[in-house]
Design goal:
By secondary structure, this protein is mainly α. Among the domains are: 153 residues, Helix Hairpins, CATH 1.10.287; 48 residues. The chain contains ten helices and no strands. Helix 2 packs antiparallel against helix 7. It is rod-shaped and about 185 Å long. The chain starts with a helix and ends in a 5-residue tail after the last helix.
């Protein structure tokens, strides 16, 4: 807005000065041609036209420079906004068919699948714990049974030995008893061997159960220990399940995607506005083109006036310098400075003014010193 006001005021004052000067040329011809001073009037008019020609040419140059710099500046802003849009397009412009380039839905699906695998693993771990417990109990019961069988085998062995001794005392009558006692003894030895093998197997099973329990503690307890190791900070919310964590991640992503979409849409609107602003700057080259056409006409007028004047070039330049001493914007600013200087002198002489009034005058002086005229 400020730049627009400055351009408008500057160009308006320049054009108004040119119009005023060219109006003077028209009045010169209207007043002096009838008095027979056509040559002198043409010389003065030529000087005025040359000055306005130079001013108009400078005005055209300034307009072209303003258009170039403004277009360049807005072009850079447009490029930066375009880069911003490209960054946000990862989230904002993804359509339903292609999905998000980050394929977060696949990540969410994989996390859910991972949760299912974790749940299955936890279930298997529970089953293993139950099976090891049952196996341990079964092994204990079998150990009791084998102990009882071993005792029975030992007693049977003793009975067989006693039978063999009695058969020896009976002589021929005890032959059958001796054979039977020997068979019982063999069976007792086999039972003892079998019990020893079973006891060895039970020891192996018990040892395996102990190893399984050692390497497979309670899943929840193990998860808490892992979480404490990874997040030792105080105040961290422990005990959060994986599915709840997935929900947190999904919610954060959706919130981020929504805000990114809003930013993407705002950046798109800003880009459109900047493009429209750049298009609106086309009035500057159009204005420059129109002024160039007028400049060519003014150049033709100057050439026509130079043919109608009999003055030498030095005299024309002298008239040009004299016309340049007209009331201009620079003189207007110089006069304003002189007025401010006079006001400051009056303020310095007012020694009896109250302190508040002096303060007000100081603020007024500071304000006046910062006044700039276009």
């Amino acid at each position: 807005i400020v730049a627009g006001i400055q351009i408008h005021d500057s160009m308006n004052q320049r054009v108004m000065h040119t119009i005023s000067a060219l109006s003077d040329v028209r009045h010169l011809f209207a007043e002096d041609i009838h008095e027979g001073r056509d040559t002198e009037t043409a010389g003065s008019a030529y000087s005025i036209v040359e000055i306005q020609y130079a001013q108009l040419r400078q005005t055209i140059s300034d307009i072209d420079e303003v258009h170039h710099k403004s277009t360049q500046a807005f072009g850079r802003i447009h490029s930066e906004v375009a880069r911003l849009i490209h960054s946000f397009s990862i989230f904002g412009s993804a359509n339903a068919e292609n999905g998000s380039p980050l394929e977060f839905s696949r990540l969410e699906s994989d996390l859910s699948h991972l949760q299912q695998i974790i749940d299955q693993g936890a279930g298997l771990a529970d089953q293993i714990q139950e099976m090891t417990a049952e196996t341990s109990e079964t092994a204990i019961r079998l150990a009791d049974h084998t102990k009882h069988v071993r005792e029975v085998s030992f007693e049977t062995h003793l009975v067989a030995l006693n039978a063999i001794v009695k058969a020896a005392h009976l002589g021929e009558d005890g032959k059958s008893l001796e054979v039977l006692a020997q068979e019982v003894k063999i069976l007792s030895d086999q039972s003892d061997t079998f019990v020893s093998d079973v006891a060895e197997i039970l020891d192996t099973i018990s040892d395996s159960v102990r190893k399984i329990r050692k390497i497979s503690p309670d899943p929840l307890e193990k998860a808490d220990k892992v979480q404490e190791q990874n997040f030792p900070e105080k105040g961290f919310e422990t005990g959060v399940s994986a599915d709840v964590g997935i929900q947190y991640i999904s919610h954060a992503y959706e919130q981020f995607r929504k805000e990114s979409l809003d930013a993407f849409q705002q950046a798109e609107a800003l880009k459109t506005e900047i493009s429209q602003t750049i298009s609106n700057l086309d009035f500057l080259p159009a204005l420059s083109g129109e002024l160039k056409r007028l400049l060519r006409e003014l150049e033709g007028i100057g050439q026509a006036l130079s043919l109608r004047t009999c003055q030498e070039t030095e005299e024309l330049l002298s008239d040009t310098d004299r016309i340049a001493e007209r009331y201009t914007m620079r003189q207007e600013r110089d006069i304003h400075k002189q007025i401010i200087a006079q006001t400051n002198n009056l303020d310095n002489n007012a020694d009896e003014a109250p302190q508040d009034e002096k303060k007000d005058n100081g603020e007024k002086e500071d304000f006046d010193n910062n006044v700039e005229l276009f």
